[in-house]
Amino acid sequence: MNVKVCVGYNRTIVEGPPGTGKTTFLLDQVDNLLKQNIDIESIGFFSFTKKAAQEARTRAIKKFNLNPEKFRYFQTLHSLAHSIAKGGPNKFFDEEEQKLFCIKNNLSYKPGDTSVNTMHGSSIINLINRAKNRMISLEKQYHDTCPPYPYPYLKRVCATYETYKKKENFFDHADSIINFNFLQDTPILKALFIDEAQDLNNLQCEMTTLMEKTAEHTWYAGDDDQAIYKWSGANPYFFIKLTGNVVKLTKSHRVPKAIAKLAKEILPRIKTRRNKDWYSKAEEGSVHRHMYFSTLPIIEELEKDKKTDQKTTCWYILSRNGYQLDPVKAYLKSEGVWYGNATKEKGGSVPAVGQRKINAIYIWEGLKKGKKLNFEEVENLYEFIRSLSKNSPEDNGITWGYKSYKTFDQNDTEKTYNYDELVEKHGLKVNIKYNWYEILQQLTNIEIEYIRACRRRGEKLMSTPRVILSTIHSIKGGEADHVALFTEINQIQHDSIMRGDDDEHRVFYVALTRAKKSLHLLESEKQWAYQI
Questions:
Q1: Mean pLDDT of all residues belonging to the chain
Q2: What is the torsional sign of CA 377, 380, 384, 387?
């Protein structure tokens, strides 16, 4: 579908329901502009999340076969804001710096913390930034959140945090956009594309509005029915209220008929939304209901793939809350099913056992068969073998001091080492007869038993897991052949529905529309469940 620039309005709103190819459509419009001899460096393509911006940039570079350096305005809004800042802080306040700040100020720290209502220092920093993103006072954010400490305490921590950043020359995401909005030094663009516009927070909405004033034409693309980040400060009403030319993408290339029918039954429950409709792909698909996770046909489908030499079937196991997946992890481990946990990258996952641990197993088995190892492989292997004292009689470790790798020429990338060389010159004291699970002492017993169970089942541990566990929020933008969804919710989420909030309806709508072939609904055994 082609839409000419600047017809009637200088703004176009692209409504892209699940699987309708919104990003592909936007890149087609970029292609149209290039055919009109518009320089790629005068086109801006921005998204809130790093993963969405990277995906668009990667696809654009591949599609248009241009020098990657020319895609200077294909990035996140945060990156743009900082890249054109004049002076000011130049070091990003990342998770490591957040941890260091908490330690220095006697605050507890929780890795990957996204909460705003606990005593952790990381949670307090999140609350401070939430207020900035929403462009509201710290006091209002405090009363909206109701954390377990008095407001004066929050004010003291906030003052300490801001002073620390200023003294150490740090900035965070919110700081960069606040500075951008203050300076109003926007790039002059022929075309401005804002993807995933339903997820913009107030600070980013103000930024895009400023950029729109200097752009010849602006495209806002999104789906307010999939706006599930309101809890983190997103403002879906900005996208809902936009006016201009409207392009409706109506054909889903992902969701089959039966699942689309069920998903659409949720939409009338969402009170505030853009009026839109879409239709499914031709396949019928299927919906199933289960009382117990063990009745899901996961293992049967994976075994079927094995018999036909297909390795593409993918399962998503989704829950509203992370703790609901703990029993699933235990079950999959007992059955020897190789699974992964979703990452922030679209469609990405990390295996249940770290990749370097898996590498160490195959490196040791290769060494036993006579393979020579390069330094990186040696380092990977040694990492998971314990150190022994110099005079230890044991034959199951690395002699003390050799993990400093001073006996290796690390600059010679082509140098390789066999078993005998590692024993004679590099501190390896491990009997060649030992199996990997006898020498890799840094693996837990649970990890060892799980890996052995997976290998008995014939799982390929060096391959991407075909079963992915995730909360619904972490998997947005992804898709899988089969989706198993826990319908259980907690009391806070139940109360939100009872108040008439739209949030939970959007969350479960997103969950249902990840499925390409079959949807499996797991009924809740607890008091509260989302009704589907």
A1: 92
A2: positive
